């Protein structure tokens, strides 16, 4: 009888130890970022509907690549986080970030109303606005005033601060298109437009993909240059410092330049202001 009670006590002791060890393993298995900051282990990253090459590229088989995607993968991995893609239209992104349905997107501070509502990393790359024109019908614009009286295509919903006063005054006619590909297609087809305003890398990537190297010209006029960043929902602010440290490591090691050059490096000779 006494031995039976002893065995029961030993079993209870071992059972308690077992549950205690199981608890330790569960805690260790939790994502470090979630455990430390109360954040989920997954970053839901907006890659834009259909992608925004060369920053986010969606292949025919559904695989995702691109400058910003590759950088985000490194940032997430350093914090033991994983990435999930979302394709959210530009006009809905801010609302999704503020209501917990999205975690991060690509954005410049200058393009964002009330940017203090969000958490931004340091700049990943410089975003250069340029004007593409048909090589056989260049505008030859060296200053913004040289654009007066012209009709320019622009991406729907995109901001171009350097040209805003001329748009508002009616000195430049702005015609919006859904994306940069359609812009270049219209210009290449000889439609009645003088040029198109687009991100330099986005335009150059599309030109290379479609074999249009001899069809387009970048006007010498200098437009806006901004830091293209990663913009996070406000609850991710505690990790932004760590993300910035990773970006600094990538920049100093040359890895960031390697990521950019895999897609479309900007030639300083062809882009005004570089």
How would you describe the overall organization of this protein?
With 274 residues, the chain is α/β, with parallel strands linked by helices. The protein folds into two domains: 35-124 and 228-261, Periplasmic binding protein-like II (D-Maltodextrin-Binding Protein, domain 2), CATH 3.40.190; 126-225, Periplasmic binding protein-like II (D-Maltodextrin-Binding Protein, domain 2, 3-Layer(aba) Sandwich). It is built from nine helices and twelve strands. Strands 5, 6, 7, 8, 9, 10, 11 and 12 form an eight-stranded mixed sheet that branches. The model is unreliable at 13-17 and 19-35 (pLDDT under 50).
Topology:
Blueprint: H1 2-29, H2 32-37, E1 42-46, E2 57-58, E3 64-65, H3 67-78, E4 82-86, H4 90-98, E5 104-107, E6 119-120, E7 125-134, E8 151-155, H5 164-169, E9 173-177, H6 180-188, E10 195-199, H7 200-210, E11 216-218, E12 225-232, H8 237-253, H9 255-261
Parallel strand pairs: 1-4, 8-9, 8-10
Antiparallel strand pairs: 2-3, 5-12, 6-12, 7-10, 7-11, 7-12
Helix pairs in contact: 3-8
